[in-house]
């Protein structure tokens, strides 16, 4: 599904990703961990096509298409979802209207008719139920005055509705409380299937107690320096990252 080869990218003159390789197949959940400043969020930014980031070498293919050639909008239409890419508050645009616009744009891109009001309502109800999303939040202005937990619920609801092929969740450095961890992990576990894949960027080993990844990668200094199974996350929790850096240079 996703094939990243020898990716070099940076901002301004600074190289941040320095030859990163990653292969993701349908049905897989990949966790990316690593020390602060390693380039984890930069990877998410490059994949979603955030401006400022310049790719200087390497390739990123999504189902055989060159992702780097696509606009951020087309990447989204092709099924790449950077979760938490709309943490901004948009007063006046309701949550559900935002989703309806986004989803109908995607349908148009695929040559499909827009949802009728009735179809969309039914779909929204079904997904609300699936991810236990509070009906109260559906018509609220996008993220306006949402608590941290409500933002997470909302993000999971967006995932449920948009059904991306590849979802990238960057948990950032902001503290996730145990409630938020549960919301995210229950949502991901409900939504994971053999047709989609998740890249979960986290430095919370705890999150991986709930979402069992197929692979755990350590990103350090712009490269993936170690890959293992779920047990690697536990080892990292216990031993930190320094031993891997030493292993990587020796
Ligand atoms: P991580 O998410 O692993 O903590 P980041 O991808 O956020 O790491 O950052 C990697 C490195 O790139 C850091 O040294 C950071 O300071 C730098 N960096 C990230 N974004 C920018 C930017 N817009 N301008 C300059 N440097 C940046
Ligand atoms: Mg960081
Ligand atoms: Mg980060």
Automatic annotation (TrEMBL):
<dbReference type="InterPro" id="IPR003439">
    <property type="entry name" value="ABC_transporter-like_ATP-bd"/>
</dbReference>
<dbReference type="Pfam" id="PF00005">
    <property type="entry name" value="ABC_tran"/>
</dbReference>
<keyword id="KW-0067">ATP-binding</keyword>
<keyword id="KW-0547">Nucleotide-binding</keyword>
<dbReference type="InterPro" id="IPR003593">
    <property type="entry name" value="AAA+_ATPase"/>
</dbReference>
<dbReference type="GO" id="GO:0016887">
    <property type="term" value="F:ATP hydrolysis activity"/>
</dbReference>
<dbReference type="InterPro" id="IPR027417">
    <property type="entry name" value="P-loop_NTPase"/>
</dbReference>
<protein>
    <submittedName>
        <fullName>Fe-S cluster assembly ATPase SufC</fullName>
    </submittedName>
</protein>
<comment type="similarity">
    <text>Belongs to the ABC transporter superfamily. Ycf16 family.</text>
</comment>
<feature type="domain" description="ABC transporter">
    <location>
        <begin position="2"/>
        <end position="246"/>
    </location>
</feature>
<dbReference type="InterPro" id="IPR010230">
    <property type="entry name" value="FeS-cluster_ATPase_SufC"/>
</dbReference>
<dbReference type="GO" id="GO:0005524">
    <property type="term" value="F:ATP binding"/>
</dbReference>
